[in-house]
């Protein structure tokens, strides 16, 4: 995970060295960091939520309708 966050670490260290990122650059760093955190979360925690379970079951129902037609 440390190597995947290389750009984020470089931007933070660059900020302390006097190099400033634009707002869009910081938003990009935040997106990369949050995607790594979400990617490391347990998938079972995400799958066990009721809303996601309902969406997945509805998606399977729609796929079955289109496949069998």
Task: Tell me about this structure.
The protein has four helices and no strands. The relative contact order is 0.09. With 69 residues, it is mostly helical. Helix content is 77%, strand content 0%. The protein starts with 5 loop residues before the first helix and ends with a helix. The protein has one domain (6-68).
Flag low-confidence runs. none
Radius of gyration: 19 Å
Q: Got a strand count? A: 0
Shape: elongated
Percent of residues in β-strands: under 5%
CA(first)-CA(last) distance: 45 Å
SS summary, helix count: 4
Number of domains: 1
What structural category characterises the helix and strand content?
mainly alpha
Estimated helix fraction: over 70%
SSE series = HHHH
Summarize the structure.
This protein has 69 residues and is mostly helical. It is 77% helix and 0% strand. It has one domain.
């Amino acid at each position: 995970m440390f190597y995947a966050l290389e750009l984020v670490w470089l931007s933070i260290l660059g900020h302390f060295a006097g190099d400033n990122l634009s707002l869009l650059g910081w938003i990009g760093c935040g997106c990369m960091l949050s995607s790594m955190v979400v990617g490391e979360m347990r998938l079972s925690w995400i799958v066990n939520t009721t809303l996601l379970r309902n969406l997945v079951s509805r998606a399977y129902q729609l796929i079955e309708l289109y496949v069998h037609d």
